[in-house]
Amino acid sequence: MSSRRNGGSPAERVGASGAPGASDAAGAGGTSRARGPGRLLIAVYGVFALAATARAGFQIATKFSEAPLAYLLSAVAAVVYIVATVSLARAGTRAYAVSVVAVTTELVGVVSVGLLSVLDPQAFPSETVWSAFGRGYGFVPLVLPILGLVWLRRNRPEQRRRK
Amino acid sequence: MDPFFLVGSLVCAVSAVLCVGAALVRQPPNDITILSVAAVELFLLAYTVAAGIRQLTGEPVLGEAWEFWGYLLTALLVPVGTFWWSILERTRWSNFVLAAAGLTVFVMLFRMEQIWDGVAGL
Q: Looking at beta carbons, which residues of chain B come within 8 Å of A37?
């Protein structure tokens, strides 16, 4: 486990007792996509999963009837981000396939919702993560899936076998 | 809360710049970057105490109070989470993750200020 090579004993202890998801990712034998740049990608996805889930939950709980379509889309976006975060962090070809589907869905979602919200603002009276190509979030929702697909392409399971 | 917002933005910005800089010169997480994220956490703790005192002394949140505290409690976890992750993998990429803490906390602080002032439209 090369990533812990430089870690002192406190690091080992924290790692051993930490949350299950991330330590699975880190402990997946060094072939995981959860290393290097992938780590940053997962961190950003995690932030978006959290933000989108909290926002969708808030919208649906307090004012669902105002704009059901927009708030349902918020919820869908939140689920996509959660699936992407978890599957990116996990090792294995199945997780790889799931993350490709999730990140592609995200790209399609942000582009189509972005287009619709610009062309037909009436249909999206309320902001979602993907409105106007994610403008409210500094366009990160638009850039993120592209970076994600590039990262996944460069880390195909076939390529990793040489390790 | 404006002085708090200024100080917090400054702490977050300095931390993010230091962490990105360290990552760009290919440094693994070191004392400087980790301490800068610790400073962000320290600020958030001070912010929490101050917000609690202000709430209790008759200066209520104008927006949704539970939303404000939800943001604050989540924000408190962000630096801790990135710190923990940065010691699991000691590469320069972990410095980018540490930088994400400052940026994320800044955005959350911005939202908390909006909620406190009652101008939040979610």
A: 93
DSSP B63: S
- Residues of A with CB below 8 A from B94's CB? 39
**Residue of A1, A6, A33 to mutate, testing the B interface (most B Cβ within 10 Å of its Cβ):** A6
A30 interface with B at CB cutoff 8 Å: no
CA distances from B20 to A29, A137, A144, B27, B98 (A): 27, 20, 18, 10, 8
Q: Can you read off the two tokens belonging to residue A57?
A: 């939950």
Q: What is the dihedral of CA B107, A127, B1, B117, to 10 degrees?
A: -170
The predicted model scores a pTM of 0.79
Structure confidence by residue, pLDDT tens digits, B1-53:
578 999 999 999 999 999 999 999 999 999 999 999 999 999 999 999 999 99
Global ipTM? 0.81
E strand or H helix that includes residue B81: helix B65-88
Question: How many residues are listed for chain A in this entry?
Answer: 163
CB-side exposure of B22: number of CA atoms within 13 Å?
26
Whether residues A44 and B100 touch (CB distance < 8 A) is answered with: yes
Q: In whole angstroms, how large is the CA radius of gyration of chain B?
A: 15
Q: Name the residue ranges covered by the structural domains of chain A.
A: 37-156
Residues near A146 by beta carbon (within 8 Å), at least 6 away in sequence: A107
Residue in B78, B87, B122 closest to A55 by CB: B122
Contact assignment for B90 to A55 by CB distance below 8 Å: no
